[in-house]
């Protein structure tokens, strides 16, 4: 189980480094070559953007081996019908889809200063897959600890409510990454200038939809608080983590806006978002996949 959580943690690092690639405009550091970097297996005399991009690719390679190792270990350590087996397989599928989407972004030139609708659409799909992969790995780690069977998954109204909460949080995450892309492509000199850009008719459309992120965050946050209230009696510790990280995220978001989204602040804000995402997935998993009484007593 510790290895599973280590894989979750490592994938958070991969996500953060990927954000660094975007924030520093290093997405074209290896040209439009994939899996090679500027036509080379290991780039010689690389520029700084090449180092950043190539490091991200190497980290993704490490994540690939880690997730494949988790898949093998899960099948070795669990029985047929285990929920962990199902989620480990799902994680592996999402991993390869993640690599495919990342390669597509590079090959199509949807990096650095590209402002096309195609980039936004593909990037949104890529970011959604990233968060779902992190969620799948988190669920794998949780159910490895509880030994739950896939057949014990609760179906019904509660599961649907939880699904809506997860989807709402996913939308916030994707809209936040698109807002960060707008901050990177169109930096502002002051807070007032940034707010004026959001509502100016002549502004790039990526800036004019930047308001979607804070608006969706407020709505999703209210929904999550309602979920926390419903889960409070049975999932108090995870619920406390969710509430604490939610408040922390709102604080980071406000600070990010006031500081005009410097790269280091974007990374910290994303780290908070990833931790919040993991916490809410843990809470949701415990709700729809409750541990057996024997496990709960431990």
UniProtKB/TrEMBL annotation:
Tell me the keywords, alphabetical order. Cell membrane, Disulfide bond, Heme biosynthesis, Iron, Membrane, Metal-binding, Oxidoreductase, Transmembrane, Transmembrane helix
* Location, primary (coarse class): membrane
Pathway(s) this gene product operates in, as recorded in its UniProt entry: Porphyrin-containing compound metabolism
InterPro entries attached here? COX15/CtaA_fam, COX15/CtaA_HemeA_synthase
Membrane-related topology note: Multi-pass membrane protein
Q: Which GO terms describe its biological process?
A: heme A biosynthetic process
- Membrane-spanning regions, if any? 58-79, 86-106, 126-147, 159-181, 211-228, 240-261, 267-289
Which Pfam families does the UniProt entry name for this protein? COX15-CtaA
Q: What are the annotated GO cellular component locations?
A: membrane
Keyword Cell membrane attached: yes
Q: What is this protein called?
A: Heme A synthase, cytochrome oxidase biogenesis protein Cox15-CtaA
Q: Which organism is it from?
A: Granulicella sibirica
